[in-house]
Amino acid sequence: MITSNIKHVNKVVPLVKPSPDEWSALLEKVGADKDRQAFSTLFEHFAPLLKGFLMKGSNIGPELAEELAQETMIKVWRRATSFQRAKSTASTWIFTIARNSRIDLYRRESRKQVQLDADDFYDQSVENPSLVSLIQVRNKQTILEHLKSLPREQHEVVSKIYYEGKSHTEVAEELSLPLGTVKSRIRLALKRMNVRLAAEEV
Amino acid sequence: MSVQLHPDGDLLVEYSSGSLSPAMCVSISAHMHFCDSCRDENLRLTEIGGSLLSGVAPEALQTSALDEVFSKIDTEVDVAVTQQPVKSNEIQRGVELKSLPAMIQNLIPTSEPKWKFLSPSLRAAAIPVGENSCELALHKIKAGGSTPSHDHNGREVIVVLKGSFSDEDGIYAEGDFIVHHPGEVHRPQASQNQECICLSVLEAPLKLTGAFHRFLNPFFSFNPQ
Asked: Consecutive 10-residue runs of chain B (225 residues): their mean pLDDT?
């Protein structure tokens, strides 16, 4: 079993972790200079997070999560030139790559005939909008703080949706809840996190 | 004029978290091409994913993982660059295709959309995304023309890409994201001065038990009234 090779020892967490800005700086170094040292630092931090993140999905085991985490990091290396810190944070940018890799995995498994990948369905310019200001990067800290303080049932729904890539309907079925309840929990959670929905403001 | 009709919050959440069908993703991306506010909304929603990623409990990888990744980086040529089947990037794009948002152009493997005749005023060109559960297509209504009054078996989403059209409920301009539920009969009509090109997603009706596994080609199961 491959699992026997996995190191289960917890890594010693460095006392001072790089700040979000420093992760961005490292990504930029990888983009500009193909800096292997910078990439290694990013890998040590993000690859285990990616594996942990992907394993939250009920149908992704440790081996598959490991494979997807590696695949995602390879894409991070290859695409680092397109990362722009003014437009996104390192973790959000890496999240979108992992999300699309997971979509592609599901599509490969269901043997879709058409050779398109998730990157073709998600407009890349949409991921990096031109109007985004640094305020939104700062806003991210707030999102993380608010996430932690969400009531348990709201946190559960939001986690299932983002960690596991499940639709509202799937989450409702899994938790044996009416779809309307799932939707209203998401709405309350977004309101609490200050992520308002434009459509509701109109 | 700014875009009036937007996807609802639930769709934006599913888009950012990665659970929408490819066809629905394309329709949201197409809308965002015209809509700054939904684009910003999506960025904030995507940050939830980024925040959850940075806060998750890490799982150690195999000790050799970083070396493996470096050796793949060194030995494998970028698959995305070399092994893709003929992607539309290499195809010379025609004038009509070039007038559409770039991400739509990238999904069409020919120099122009391959229009099929549906009625004297209406043409459709399917966009293959490899889904059975829904169909993605472009529709073109000629200036002043209208489509037959119709209903669908599943939910239909329309995004106006070029020109404008109207129906019983209103006038729709570039970027508008219109949702029709089964049973809502409508009869779109293009504006007099310009043809109208729309992106449409049509979902197959929900199959409840699987007892009736008839395959529906939802787009052509368009029900004239």
From this structure: 88 94 94 90 89 92 94 75 50 88 90 90 89 87 87 87 92 95 85 94 58 36 42
Can you read off the two tokens belonging to residue B185? 């009969």
**Environment class of residue B77 by beta-carbon count within 10 Å: exposed (0-12), middle (13-18) or buried (19+)?**
exposed
In chain A, the domains with their CATH numbers are: 16-130 (1.10.1740.10), 133-202 (1.10.10.10)
B78 contact residues in A (CB cutoff 8 A):
78
* Contact list, A162 vs chain B (CB under 8 Å): 17, 48-49, 52
Distance CA B201, CA B4 (A): 19
Nearest CB to B18 within list A62, A103, A126: A103
- CA distances from residue B219 to A5, B20, B62, B153 in whole angstroms, order as listed: 51, 19, 48, 9
Q: Please report residues of B whose CB lies closer than 8 A to that of A51.
A: 58-61
Q: What residue ranges define each of the domains in chain B, with the CATH number in brackets?
A: 1-225 (2.60.120.10)
Encode pLDDT of A141-184 as tens digits. 678 788 888 999 999 999 999 998 899 999 999 999 999 999 99
- DSSP-derived letter for residue B180 is E
Is the pTM higher than 0.95?
A: no
CB distance B69–A131 less than 8 Å?
no
